[in-house]
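User: Modeling request: complex.
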Amino acid sequence: MNALELAGVSYTYPQAPVPALRELTLEIAQGEFVVLAGGSAAGKSTLLGVACGLVPHFHGGRFDGRAEICGMSLRDHGPAALAAEVGTLFQDPETQVVMGTVRAELAFPLENRGHSAVAVARGVEEVALALGIESLLERSTVELSGGECQRVALGAALAGRPRLLVLDEPTSQLDPVAGDELLGLLRRLNEEWGTTIVLAEHRLERCLGAADRVIALDRGEIVCDAAPSGFLEWAHDAATALETPGATLVAGLGLTPAPAGVKQARATLRAAGLLPEATAPAVAPRHEPRRRRRRTPAASLRLRHVWHELSDGPAILAGVSLSVAAGERVVLLGRNGAGKSTLLRHAAGLAQPTRGRVERTGRVALLLQNPGDYFIHDRVGDELDGAGLARAGLGALADRHPRDCSGGERQRLALAIVTAGEPPPAVLCLDEPTRGMDRAAKATLAGELIDWSERGVAVVVATHDPEFAAAFATRAVLLADGRVLADSIPADLLSGGWYFATETARILGGHRGILTPAQALAELSADPAAVEAHR
Amino acid sequence: MNYLRRASPLHATRAGVGAAYCAAIVLAALVIPNPLVLGVLAVALLVAGAGAGAGGRVARSLYLSAPMAVLIVLVNALVSREGLTVIARLGDAGPLGQIDITLEAVAYGAKEALVLIVIIAACALASAAVDPDELLRSLRRVSFRSALTATIATRMVPLLALDARRIGDAQRCRPDPGGRLAVMRAITANALDRSLDVAATLEVRGYGSARRPARAHRPWSRHDLAFAGSALAIAVLALALRAPFAFYPSIHGSFGVRTWALAAAIAFAALAPFMQRRGIMR
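Assistant: Request completed. Predicted assembly structure:
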């Protein structure tokens, strides 16, 4: 019996003009680890919805074809019945936790299935131990961090020991450390419990190493179904936006096979004699704030010894001093809870320091994490005037409801809203702008930020995405526990770490601060004869 | 609506007993008319709040109850036609007639205000120290879906409050912030989105096929017994020995030994369970 079996499945959401899935036929065997790849609106989430029964039972719409999940027909079984065999984890940790305490949350699915009190208690203990969250059992769910919340939600999904686990971008709101921990857990579940994993993810470089198989979707159709290396070879020719940085680098050097992870890429480069000798960072990161910059006279934004201390609570910011010059592009990195968002709120005046002060030479535009929070009208055209819409490339969407726009379109609209008006902003701050974005949308956003900085606007972005940081930033600041740990050029900071490093930097061991495949190709191809000789 | 786990005897008590303890205090406030006993009850509640690690929360409930208490005293003084001891004559107020403020009306209003303060403080203590999930789970055997709906509503309140704050911040970031009505619309639309997300989560957790939960057998801890005994004692004392006090037409009541003994007994019953500190971590 397969974990998931689809035959000619097509599905159209209610009132949608085009189908989200078209004539899909596929089989996923028990125990497989499958990654779903594709751009925004490719059909990944819809396919996961089919696997857990939300499509069509919860969303409605038109469904054709045959789907069987763990031997149960989708026509006869809704999500509640399928929950006995399928665990589901969505993107947003907050909306997946419905009870007040962690213990109650883990017990909830078992109680729904009518298990005895003893069985519920045992199930809760076992899943908590398996995921290492036993210390959280008595905690209130409102006290959990994003990473803890996601682990608890995973625990609730696994409490009934499902045979199939479907996950929709579960790491998109997690920092690299928590994201890696979650992916490690999934790999362990797959290897030790034999749980079938189907995972949709934009940042493929994080998960391909664990996958047995990759299914790429485009406009609701399967365009590639292969092992990770086969998928990457296909992506190099047919969909470069899905190619991982490591695969781009190896393919750019004319080497094979396409690497599914850092280890494989290093092996390929080593075999070709192209892996730099030094595995330690060639350029040691400077782990001290750059004092010279703080005295820059043309600073658009200056934080002087800013503290943010909660009443009866910890200090979220502990004496942060930071100066950002006009036209500078700064990325803020750090774990969840490091103080990045709070720093941006202080920059924009949404929060007042309990000690210290913030100086600004002009308006600070701040785009918070959820662009939907900025919309107050029923039409895109009412949110912004015609000229503003045209500048944002959204003129054609004037009559659409803002909530009906795609994630990338919402982001652009919200960015246009906060930057509209006179005078133009002196500083533009963005908080986690790439959540749920595909690689193409990230590249577009990076280009827009560079345009803003070239117009003299200081850009400050808090992100967990090192690849995005490398694409746009001229300066990187690492925060931890509300303090600035490092303040340097991206080549220093993003090449020397384990977590806050690009895939290219990890492959090359931080060699010469190289961050992107393009930089690596320029460096390693300096001697084309040597490359050719090793092919 | 903001239950936080603490290491305290009240937190270590099963939710049903904790709720009964707070309900007994409310019952005492409603049936005892004597201001002395009510005052002692209010002080005992503050101490109980501190013993449960929620003293700040109980004290902050005064922000809500104090303005209402002042309003009760004022309104009762102005509208009450009873009482013999006139302390102020405000003259003719047209259709309302002659308004005289009497000492009895002011005292009765103050007593009702004290009752309100005690009730709100007891509710604050319950919300801080009684696990709503556990309480509602125990009600699920009676009415499964109603109890579950209440559980989710309990969870949604702080979530929607956070959303509202976040949307308010986003609106402040707009160069042309929307008016209050526009912001309210945005919050409402967001609440609908949130509800859909939570409904989808409930579906995939098997809520749609949920069955009545089996009865859980849990041994009674020393704290369960202590608070259950305390609740029973408070209720019996309040109902059996009411310490009568009359406000109209003139103030008649006792502040004698019997009243002091009742006040002390109720305070002791309310606070004694907090003296047991063994096994308070859960």
